[in-house]
Design goal:
By secondary structure, this protein is an alpha/beta fold. It has one domain (about 5-250): Alpha-Beta Complex (Spore Coat Polysaccharide Biosynthesis Protein SpsA, Chain A). About 30% of the residues lie in helices and about 20% in strands. The strands form 2 sheets. The protein has a 7-stranded mixed beta sheet with strand order 3-2-1-4-9-6-10, with helices on both faces. Strands 5-11-7-8 form a 4-stranded mixed beta sheet. The longest helix is centred in the C-terminal third of the chain and has 18 residues, at about 220-240. It is globular and about 50 Å long. The mean pLDDT is about 85.
């Protein structure tokens, strides 16, 4: 059993032929901490079989696998994250996106802070398309010189970060992401943070200074941005009207059912 499961939700965004997906996978494989697995929770991608074949034959340093829970529109990040959490092979589970790039010490830092009464978040640096091309072209190398790659904006601490990590006891206590009310992409991590606080679980933020930032967001494809922002605005309306911690979240269960 691995010590950590990294869950990334996906539908038609993890493309093994793109630089963003290649760097996402590469930045997991180059970690100093390797006692982990990568689990893609897929919502019905057209290239599911291609990804599945690659993971089974690529001879990776860490186990990589993909499971599928077919969904329609919209993307449903909250639901897919829950499917990944429920199917993790470890007690420590970290959720992220398949367009993130991690500094090589990030997973070690996550595990150093992990226990069964803490929730780990991280500040994230957002790269612009023009800058990230310098990494894709080989001009800059995040593995050998991460500091030169720290060019971008950092979101406020009040928003969700590029990862959400906790022991399964914490995930069970809040019943995962709010798949019942939060749809599409956007603000489901901020809603989760509100319930984490209401449940009395301590939140640990990583990357609180420029020097300690190890989580980087690669630019979204332009075709995804419009739908993402529309759903984010809808989710914000629900988020702004939360009255309290609800023990019956997700209709008494969470994680969906695998096809």
């Amino acid at each position: 059993m691995p010590a950590l499961t990294i869950v990334a939700s996906n539908r038609d965004r993890l493309d093994l032929n793109t630089s963003a997906s290649q760097w996402f996978i590469k930045s997991i494989q180059w970690q100093n901490f390797l006692d982990m697995e990568l689990l893609i929770a897929d919502g019905g991608s057209a290239n599911y079989e291609e990804i599945d074949h690659y993971f089974k034959t690529c001879n990776s340093k860490i186990p990589m696998r993909i499971i599928q829970h077919k969904i329609g529109e919209p993307f449903e990040r909250a639901l897919l994250n829950n499917v990944g959490i429920r199917n993790a092979n470890s007690e420590n589970i970290m959720c992220t996106d398949c367009d993130i790039l991690f500094g090589k010490d990030l997973m070690s830092e996550v595990m150093e802070n992990m226990n069964n009464n803490i929730f780990i978040e991280s500040r994230t640096m957002y790269w612009k398309s023009k800058f990230v091309q310098r990494i894709y072209s080989g001009e800059l190398d995040p593995y050998t010189n991460l500091e030169k790659c720290k060019v971008g904006r950092i979101h406020k601490r009040s928003t969700g970060g590029g990862l959400e990590a906790a022991h399964k006891d914490v995930w069970n206590k809040v019943r995962g992401f709010n798949e019942q009310d939060m749809h599409g992409w956007g603000s489901e991590d901020a809603e989760l943070l509100e319930r984490i606080k209401m449940a009395g679980i301590r939140i640990k933020w990583l990357g609180e200074s420029l020097e300690s930032i190890k989580v980087f967001h690669q630019p979204h494809p332009k075709k995804d941005i419009k739908n993402d922002l529309e759903w984010q605005e809808k989710n914000k309306v629900f988020l702004n009207n939360i009255k309290g911690y609800r023990a019956n979240l997700n209709n008494g269960g969470w994680g969906g059912k695998l096809d």
